[in-house]
Amino acid sequence: MAAATSNGLSGRAIMAGVGALVGIAMWFLFEVAGEVVSNPQAFVILASFVAGGAAVLLAMAGPLSLGRAAFGAMLLAAPSALALGWASSGFEELETFIRNGLALVAWGVILFVGTPFLIVALRKDGDWRSYPELFDCSWRIVVRYAAAWLFVGLFWGILLLSNALLEIVDITVIDDLIDIEPMPHILTGAMLGLAIRVVHEMRDYLSPFMLLRLLRLLVPVVLVVVGIFVAALPFRPFDGLFGQLSPAATLLVVALGAVSLVSVAVDKDEDHAVKLGFMRLATEGLALLLPIIAGLAAYAVWLRAAQYGWTPERIAAALASGMVTLYGLLYAVSVLWRGAWMQHVRVVNLAMALLVLLLGFAWLTPLINAERISTRNQVARYLDGKVSAAELAVWEMQHSWGRAGVAGIAELKALEGEDHADLQRAIELSETSEYRHVFERRTTDTGRDARIERLAGLLTVLPEGREITPQMLAELPNHRLEDWLMACDREPEPGCVVVLGDFSTRAPQTGGIAFLPGRSDRYDAVALRFVQGQVMLGSYLRDAETGMALRLTREDVARVLEGGYRIAPSSRKSLWIGDMEINPDN
Fold this sequence. Notes:
This protein has about 575 residues and is of the alpha+beta class. The chain has helices at about 1-35, 40-60, 65-90, 95-100, 100-120, 130-165, 175-180, 185-200, 210-215, 220-230, 240, 250-265, 275-310, 310-335, 340-365, 370-385, 395-400, 400-415, 420-430, 435-445, 450-460, 480-490, 555-560, and strands at about 460, 495-500, 510-515, 520-530, 535-540, 550-555, 565-570, 575, 580. Strands 1, 2, 3, 4, 5 and 6 form a 6-stranded mixed sheet that branches. Strands 7-8-9 form a 3-stranded antiparallel sheet.
């Protein structure tokens, strides 16, 4: 007993140490590596290898010895990281690649699906095709990680509460510890590793058994809902079924949920599968209805693609709907085949998991280059006259689809003539609109650019040499644009005045204060922020003493125009007009 206890404590200490090392690696990755590794593609490979390897290592440690777990983690993390780096080569900027997101999803799917296969394969006498072992391993990983992260959350809650308690008596040891830069990562990793080890030790008590039994109870519920939906289809006009809001996402989620519930009911073998005749019938019924739901999801995706063209998101949805349709057809065939139909479903699940793994890698390679496929489709649709410039995914090609999208824009930009005037205007607007909603607003509101030009001409910007261009005002909401125009038209002298300056030690030259003519011969003061060169409005400023809205006279603003102001600190930098202090952060 003492030896067992000693081994348990030793194993926990080792896993806590491994978790701490993982925490240090995560700190290095997020805080240091970005400055050391300048090449975006190299950074993606490094980051995905470290993060993916850490996640797989912690999942494998326990079911496997630490050495085998490290070997397995490298075996899966290395090729997936290289594939993700390959996918990132299609993007000029790392931020655009990350914002695109679909490649990261494919990478996560590879790790999630591949980990159970490796655990089973690396066991002594393990057979990676053993469905019972794969099923059990997959659900144990889910339970182990869920319980471990819950413990980490509780640990931080108790730690922060303890810190608050000790600070009452002026003891700041916990706060000082947390302030050491890598320490939060080290503590999180250590607690995660420790928790994963303890959960593995208690696997006979904390198993997926209860979760799986609870999920089975949902099979009849989902069957009734899906049955009602299918029964109502003949009484609903088919054209109206796919109205303005595409139901593809809803149908896909329901279909994936049905696949999961059927798999849970079938379990890992006949001994653990559902036994009650009612539950077996409910499982069979859900499996037989699955092709209808999955087929409708696939049709909804095809309908959107036929109407608006392909995009990476629609390609991903098409692949997902194709997969659940294949699931549905194979499940239905298994049930209709009778005999050992549950065993057939298990074989289907094993084959489909491998197919998902292959598709994940294919998405990250030129085999499925969604951005290139989408760009070619969009350009071809425009050249064939199937879509107008307003319906073309111009902004997406310019900002979201990487090098392939930029190449498509270059091809479209080369088109000349009056027939392509709307297209050229859309391309020009996309080049100067960093955000999609701004682009949409500018393309639908044809008079907006003229109003922005007019407002920029009405602003008097100080100090001399500084300016606010129309491009810098592109983010202004329409109602603010109208308010500013109305205010600047209200009082021609001294008009609208903006003072730009370094009001923050953290972000030099990114602040400003606008003085706008209000009612009753008074001026309002508005704080301005600049985010990536775009003017963002802050709040209307208030008097520090009275708390009321800060109001200036025409003479105060005229004094500013004459240079009678200074930017100087009090507790922080403020704008001083004589003895009047105005701080944009109040």
